[in-house]
Amino acid sequence: MNETLKNKLTFRQGAIAAWPICLGYFPIGLALGVLAQKAGLPWWAVAMMSVMVFAGSAQFICVAMIAAGASTPAIILTTFVVNLRHVLMSSALAVYLQGVDRKFLALYSYGVTDESFAVNLTKFREGNWGRWQALIVNHLANSVWIIATTGGALIGQFVPQGALGVDYALTGMFICLLVFQLQGRIYVITGLLAAGLSTLWYLLIPGDSYIVGASMSAATIGYLLKRHYRRSK
Amino acid sequence: MTFNDYLFLCGGMGLVTYLPRALPLLYLAHRKMPQWLIDWLSLIPVAILSALIAPSLFTDAATRSFAFGKLELLVAIPTLIFSLKTRSLGGTVLVGMLLYWLGGMI
Q1: C-alpha–C-alpha distance, residues A35 and A42, integer Å
Q2: ipTM entry
Q3: pTM of the prediction?
Q4: Domain extents in chain A
Q5: Are the Cβ atoms of A218 and B43 closer than 8 angstroms?
Q6: Which of B18, B32, B46, B88 is the most buried (most CB within 10 A)?
Q7: How far is A3 from chain B (nearest CA, A)?
Q8: For A64-111, how does the pLDDT look when each residue is reduced to its tens digit (9 = 90+)?
Q9: CB-based contact (8 Å) between A47 and chain B?
Q10: What does the alpha-carbon distance between residue A110 and residue B22 come to, in Å, rounded to a whole number?
Q11: Are the beta carbons of A195 and B51 closer than 8 angstroms?
Q12: Which residues of A touch B11 (CB under 8 A)?
């Protein structure tokens, strides 16, 4: 009885943390499904991709590349480059998952996305957050993603676009999670640096390297500034 | 494309997506990380979040050019202020959506 209650509580905490992600995934997933269907992908291929890959931006790029007649190796290589940013996120999460058994980590890794990373890392840092809650966030987001993308491929063309501003849900979530990260001057400086660098990088260099490039550069400058400040004190 | 073509494509995409997600966790979670790495990684979330949001606020994705005053940016300002004042994730998401919806109708 006590165990069931605890499990219920864990699930509820995970679900409460996951809802903004789920809300944001719905319109994006539907849109992806509609585009995929227009590009000639059958609904089961959309479902298969959402289960096996689970990476929003890479899936959008894949659909565009299929529509343009790109080869399978080219699509796989592009996916690799676009998703390399997750190396940084997994590394940052490792700080909070020290010594956790490898089976759990192997399952957990599957669900590391921009959104689940941002939510779980914020929660871990606040404390009072466990790996099971984090895993529930990952898998709830994944379930909604699979349902929304498949649904989009099946019935997406009948859904009105842009209703209730739901297209802004993930941007709103990222803005708030960014605010939660601002825990001192060095974080504000790093954030501003990353904003400026990523915008410039995005404008000047084609492709998606701006996310990894700008965030690594900004974190490095921030780290050096912090160290310099600490030494000179 | 046949079923097997899609299976091969999704399998390949899945593998190259999974490995960058899994290897750092599997490796780093069982090593003692040096302090400099922990300090550096503590700045990664704020940097990644900024790098994900900023280009969508200040540039036009279709032409990949600088665009100042987009609806996304105009909505982001009150949303940011609301979030700083209330520190409520759910509230911020709803306020952002509401303003974006209203802004789109003007």
Answers
A1: 11
A2: 0.91
A3: 0.85
A4: 2-162, 182-233
A5: yes
A6: B46
A7: 27
A8: 889 888 899 989 998 998 898 999 999 999 999 999 999 999 999 999
A9: no
A10: 7
A11: yes
A12: 52
